[in-house]
Amino acid sequence: MxxxxxxxxxxxxxxxxxxxxxxxxxxxxxxxxxxxxxxRWIQLLLAACLIFMFLYLSKIPFSFxxxxxTFLKYMYLFFIVxxxxxxxxxxxxxxGFLQVTLDGLMxxxxxxxxxxxxxFMGALLTFTTAPSxxxxxxKALIKGQSMEQFAFMTSLAIRLIPMILDEVKLIYSAQxxxxxxxxxxxxxxxxxxxxxxIIPAISxxxxxxxxxxxxxxxxxxxxxxxxxxxxxxxxxMKDTVILAxxxxxxxxxxxL
Length: 256
Known about the structure:
Blueprint: H1 21-37, H2 41-58, H3 62-70, H4 73-86, E1 91-95, E2 98-101, H5 102-128, H6 131-141, H7 145-177, H8 187-218, H9 237-255
Antiparallel strand pairs: 1-2
């Protein structure tokens, strides 16, 4: 089973790790705006240069980011096939009523590249920022009790992703040790065996969440009450530089 790292914090001493969580969140917002504004290859290239610079500053192997992007490979394939068959006028070849176009193919590759860059930036945020830091940054950016509750729920959701995946991997390994081999059974049997993995994984995850709730209750957590944080956010010059580079790139994309 392939390992999905999205939602996990990878502790590495790097420049991007040391940035303020507020700067990282603002960069993520700028990245979303960039992806919306990009409509030409030159704009995509400019955004890619910025994002790959950030990936390099994180000192996390690029293979980690690539694994997250390839996790959606079937969606990328759907985009390419859909645009190739439905858009464009420059025909490459035709099979029956299906017309494969060159400009449609390029359009599918373009949107696939945009989605991969977005996945890279999302993985960069979770890889370099602990969930508690994300909560502290979100609370500092947007004040209010509702925002605090939303940030807390988001942090729990981020923790829940690797927790569920770990449970699935553990149960899948246990089934393999008992002789289960998905490559040698039919599709109908695969679906029935899959339920034997999903149901225990959900059950174990609920048990772990119940234990987490009991631990929070023992520590005096009360919904709606003002909470203090061990994270003291300090905005530094490097945060300003990173944010300024994102703003300059966004302006360049809009002007191109």
